[in-house]
Amino acid sequence: MQRRSRGINTGLILLFSQICHVGINNIPPVTLATLALNIWFFLNPLKPLIYSCLSVEKCYQQKDWQRLLLSPLHHADDWHLYFNMASMLWKGVHLERRLGSRRFAYVISTFSLLTGVVYLLLQFAVAEFMDEPDYRKSCAVGFSGVLFALKVLNNHYFPGGFVNVLGFPVPNKFACWAELVAIHFFSPGTSFAGHLAGILVGLMYTQGPLKKILEACAGHSGYQDHYPYGRPGSYEAPRNYDMYTAGLSEEEQLERALRASLRDRDEAANAVLTNTEF
C-alpha cells in the first residue's frame, strides 16, 4: 500500500469546501455521519494501511477479520478520500431522502461489510481457478465498493436518463458497468474486484434476496424507518427523471436535489404555519 503524502492535503481541503458549499444543514444525518467517520479515520487511522487493507491472505488465511470493518473506512491518500466522499455526498442526499435515515443507515452498514466479503470471494476464485496466487495477496482499502453498490440503488430508485462516461452518453441502468470498465482501463491502480463486488452487492439488493433479508432483520430488531423529509410515498416524485440525471455532472445533480429538498422543507413549514393560525 502507498503511504499518504505528508504535504498539504488538497483533496481534504476541497472536500471540506464542497461540504460547506452544500451546507451541513442540507446534508441528511446518516450521510453526514458517514462523511465525518471517513474523514476522522483518515486523520486518525486506527492502524496503518498495511494493517487495515483487505486481502484473502490477511483476512481469511491469517484470520484477521477486523479488516472487513477497517478497510472501507481507510483511504490511501487525500484524493482517494475526496473522490469517494464527494460521490458519497451526492448519492447520500438522493438515497437517504428516498429511503429514510434509519433504513439508509442499515443499508450503508450492511453494504460496508458485504462488499468486503464479496471482494474476498472474487479474489479467492480468481486465485484458485486461474492459478494466480498473487490475487490472494492483493490488498485494497476505501469506500468505493460501497459507492458502486449505492450507484446501483440510485439507478434503481431513480431510473431513466443518461450519464456522461468519458464523453459518451450512457443509459443510467448501464452506467455502473461502463464506469467499472472505464476506471479499470484509465486508472489501473484501482481495485477492479472491489468495484465489481459493489455492483454485485447492489444487484443482490435490487434484483436478489438481500432487500427482503434486510427488511426481515430490521423487523425482528424493532427497527422503524425515520424519514426526515417525509415518507417516500408522501411526496410525488417527478415523472421525468431526466431533470435529475440527463447529461448532468454529480455536482449539478446534487444542487438540483438540494433545491428540491429545500423546497419540500419550505412547503412543509408553510403548511404548519397555515394550520396553526387562529
From TrEMBL:
Pfam families: Rhomboid. It is a multi-pass membrane protein. The keyword Transmembrane helix applies. One of its GO terms (biological process) is cellular response to unfolded protein. It is found in: Endoplasmic reticulum membrane; Mitochondrion membrane. SUPFAM superfamilies: Rhomboid-like (SSF144091). One of its GO terms (cellular component) is mitochondrial membrane. It catalyses: Cleaves type-1 transmembrane domains using a catalytic dyad composed of serine and histidine that are contributed by different transmembrane domains. The keyword Hydrolase applies. Its main location: endoplasmic reticulum. Belongs to the peptidase S54 family. This is Rhomboid-related protein 4. It comes from Tupaia chinensis (Chinese tree shrew). The lineage of its organism: Eukaryota, Metazoa, Chordata, Craniata, Vertebrata.
